[in-house]
Amino acid sequence: MDPNREFLRVPAEKNARGEWRHAGFEIEYADVKLPICVAALKRRYGGRIEMVNPYHYTLRDTQYGTFKVMIDFQFLAGSKLKSWVREYGLDGVLDEEMIERIERFLASVGESVVPYEVTTPPLPLHALEEAQTIKEMLRKLGAKGTRASPLYAFGMHINPELRSVDVETILTDLRAFFILYDHIMEWLEPDLTRRITPYINPFDTDYRLMVLSESYQPTMEELIDDYLAYNPTRNRVLDLLPLLSWIDEERVRRVLPDEKIGKRPTYHYRLPDSRVDEEAWCVCQGWNSWALVERLAADPEALEELRGRMLEYLSVSPLSILLRDDYTAAVARWIDETIR
């Protein structure tokens, strides 16, 4: 199969309850106004449009659930200015018209760097092609993607539901992701603007060494505490904060009381670009880079071999170049065999 044109299947398409797993997509773009975008979604999926405010629309009651279309700026999408005015008793200073003028000004300034975003409802894994349909809809409407401007650090975030919410699954997936990370980066080639901004920062070597160590067998509480100690931020290529908040929000909030975190039983995979204006680009490329992680996680023999090779080259700096070449070749062979 062609992993640049077709969606790879994952080994576990059902969750622990025997139901279809889901994955949500957040697709950032520029140049197509929100009412036009949500109207196009309605033509495809039916449903009912609601305007939360001029910078945030929803499409409800579709067969998949609720779509959201908004500017990726919570101060506007979440009507934060109005809340701030009420909270500080400034109603008599800033009336509705003045607030709307300020919001319009902020929107006009922000449009050059702040993306619009389509957020899909959780799509069942048998319907992932709908994400590609939405990408093509945006392209035909004239949307611009990551590479259309040096200022666009646009991403396509994927929120894959875990097959089972337990410490063994999370640890196995993390190890598989660390092993495949360099190859995924080389395949997806994230835009330079996104690489130099903090949004998709990689994990530190010390954290990877700890997780890859055979002796690291944490409880769920220990895994959460360790993750927060090394990664007290949303800005990771694979953000676990939504998942860990869903598991134990109080534990996460003790460390990050003010961070914006939407809790859910999914990973938040932030690495892929959003190249919606490129006809040759398929949403499946981003999905498939994650599907490889799940395939490796489901292959205990390969996972153990590659974990050992990676740990060896990360740990032994004088031989790291030779060991890295050996490890890289082994990973490449596994990838070639698994996508044949």
Mean pLDDT: 88
- Provide the helix percentage: 40-55%
Strand content: 5-15%
Main beta sheet: strand number and arrangement? 7 strands, antiparallel
> What is the N-to-C order of secondary-structure elements (H for helix, E for strand)?
EHEEEHHHEEHEHHHHEHEHHH
The low-confidence parts are 75-90
E-strand count:
9
Distance between the termini: 6 Å
- Distinct helical segment count: 13
Provide the gyration radius in Å.
21 Å
Describe this structure in words.
- It contains 13 helices and nine strands.
- The protein is α+β, with helices and mostly antiparallel strands and 340 residues long.
- It has a domain at 22-30 and 115-338.
- The strands form two sheets. Strands 1, 2, 3, 4, 5, 6 and 7 form a seven-stranded antiparallel beta sheet that branches. Strands 8-9 form a two-stranded antiparallel ribbon.
- Helix 12 runs antiparallel to helix 13 (320-338).
- It is globular and about 55 Å long.
